Amino acid sequence: MTRREAILEGAQSAARLHDRLGVRRQVEARAGSVDVFGAILALGTPLIFRPLQGLLGACLPGPGIMISTERPLPIQRFTGAHELGHVALGHDSSLDGDEILRRIGHNSGDTVVSELEVAADSFASAFLLPKWLLQMHARRQGWNRASMADPHIVYQLSLRVGASYSATCVALERHDIINETTREALQAKPRRTIKAELLDGVEVDNFFPDVWLLTERDEGSTIEGQPDDVFVLRLEEQGGAGYLWTTSGLIDSGFAILRDRREVPPPTVAVGGPVTRALTARRTEPAKGSFSLELRRPWLKTGTPLAALRVAYDLQGKEVGMPRATRRHLRLAA
Fold first, then answer.
1. Which of 56, 73, 138, 320 could form a disulfide with 143 if both were Cys (CB 3.0 to 4.6 A apart)?
2. For residue 118, which of 146, 96, 147 has the smallest C-alpha distance?
3. Are 311 and 223 contacting, i.e. CB atoms less than 8 angstroms apart?
4. Alpha-carbon span 181 to 163, nearest angstrom
5. 246 contacts 301 by C-beta, under 8 angstroms
6. The predicted structure's pLDDT at residue 299
7. Dihedral in degrees, nearest 10, Cα atoms 180, 182, 186, 188
């Protein structure tokens, strides 16, 4: 099998598994990311998360999959997709380290990697970051091809698809949405700088957590992140008509509001016109749930709000031990 044939085999196998498991339908229903761990379990493949020295993951005879707990969730997800590729392609076994991350987008130039690893790499990228997934989130957010040259937008896209910023840049190039020059420019932008610009003066202890920018376009979406991620909500408010965004739903869900301000509208906006309400909030412990904000007149406690932002969240971070999907199944069966 040639290298090109291995790449095609991996991508085609990923597409077939998407169809078999109904992945696209599930993702579009909750406006989230591809559930790679759920896919592994759906195939009846044992999955466990353990501290691994020098390895990101392993596909073991049987087959079974083991993933390191020493890396954040996006790396666990890509590793899981790579090991799932070995299973789906019928490979006997594989022990995989950081090299699978270094190879992203560079298989064609690597003469050392076996065709089996090339196929698993291709499967992982196609399974986690199919073109339809990138397009789905772009349509929801109102982004177009030109938007993909903006590192802030690509960073937000990476959070929504559950992949690293670098892997998302490579996927955009692979799907011919951006060119090589744009991809290199995007990857040259430090993630710390992107986060600091999004926070716009809000102080944090460090820049390891991600910074999510949420707007009304995220209505009904599902987000998956780390326990200490920061959320910046930028919502249009009709203060002149008495319509204000409620924050009680956010606070009741355990979020602390770090900053609440209304941005000064440009001179072209008429007095009493819409303004942007900018809320910065975060949790400090792992949690799963949802929050809801409503645009309504404060003195009207009932009735249909003018607008709403309802978001489901899973901020439990990286997986450890038994997969959370397995634990949920056991609780339901008890």
1. 138
2. 96
3. yes
4. 21
5. no
6. 87
7. 70
- Quickly list DSSP for 245-313: E--HHHHHTT-EEEEEEEEPPPTTSPTT--EEEEEEEE-SS--EEEEEEEEE-TT--SS--SEEEEEEE
Separation CA 310–CA 304 (nearest Å): 14
DSSP per-residue string spanning 122-184: HHHHHHHS-HHHHHHHHHHHT--TGGGG-HHHHHHHHHHHTS-HHHHHHHHHHTTSS-HHHHH
Q: Roughly what angle, to the nearest 10 degrees, separates helices 131-141 and 165-174?
A: 110
- Give the CA distances from residue 229 to residues 200, 208, 294, 305, in Å, rounded to whole numbers and listed in that order: 15, 9, 22, 28
* Residue 241 · residue 222 · CB < 8 Å: no
| Dist. CA 56–CA 101, nearest whole Å | 9
Helix (H, G, I), strand (E, B) or coil at 233: strand
94 bridge partner residues: 59
> 256 Cβ partners below 8 Å, 6+ apart?
281, 282, 283, 284
- Distance from first CA to last CA of the chain, Å, rounded? 48
| Paired strand residues for 262 | 277
Determine the distance from the C-alpha atom of residue 145 to the mean position of all C-alpha atoms in its chain, rounded to a whole number: 19
Quote the tokens at residue 91: 């490979």
d(CA 253, CA 117): 43
Give 276-320 pLDDT, tens digit per residue: 999 999 998 999 999 999 999 988 878 899 999 999 999 999 999
Instruction: Give the residues across from 48 on adjacent strands.
Output: 66
Asked whether 290 and 45 are in contact (CB, 8 A), the reply is: no
User: Is pTM, for the whole model, over 0.85?
Assistant: yes
Q: Residues in the chain with pLDDT < 70?
A: 105-112, 266-273, 328-334
Q: Which domains does the chain have, with CATH numbers?
A: 3-128 (1.10.10), 132-189 (no CATH), 197-314 (2.60.40.2020)
Half-sphere CA count of 250, side-chain side, radius 13 A:
22
Encoded amino acid at 51, one letter: P
